[in-house]
Amino acid sequence: MSGPRRIVSLVPSTTESVCAFGARDRLVGCTRYCTHPERGLDGVVRLGGTKNPDRERLLALAPDLVLGNAEENRPEDLEWLQQRVPVLVQTPRRIAAAVQGLAELAAVLRTGEAGAASVARQVEAALRAVREGVDGPRVYYAIWRKPWMSVSADTFVHDVLAQAGATNVCAEFPARYPEVAPAIAVAREVERVLLASEPWAFDAAQQAELAQRGEFGAARLVLCDGRDFCWHGVHMAIGLPRAFAMLSA
Fold it and tell me: What would the pLDDT profile of 231-243 be if each residue is shown by its tens digit?
């Protein structure tokens, strides 16, 4: 088998994909936010966060491939690394692009082609199923609380919502991750507020607090696993069906 022998991943969802594609033994570094596969990353050097990796320590690992994402990683970090080592940057903003990205990753690794094809089939099955359903709700997808922030049409999360038939009430904002106060969502007749587990860690206590305060009017407040809506690696095989089911419930 050829292909890269020393891999560093700066993207949690991609780290999971590398392992799923049988290249765990070649993964020498990742971020502290790389949590999956659970109990599967023992011995992999942690290099800091996605936004502040220890670049010198990373370079000392002598990687022959660094995996990045222009959304999760800072441009200055990616540019610095690209001047020194091979870097593959994947930043899909649509489900279809994410499926293509998995095939590209498998080809670069020289392993995992069957896994990438399996995920593609499962994603397509999930899309077929949801297209046969009814229109979804008007949604505000909350990624941050102080200040309140959501997602525009130019994001992977938006495509997940759209493919499920839901209407993103923040779709037309020019910023990809706009600040949108609850009152604006209410004025746009929001029906469901998805409180994501990442990057802001919404929990049951916050859900109850927000329901009591009534900032989102009569909208239904729902906790959701952020990975199901924004992880674009092999997690899509289980994440997208769960996301679609939540939106159709």
Answer: 999 999 999 999 9
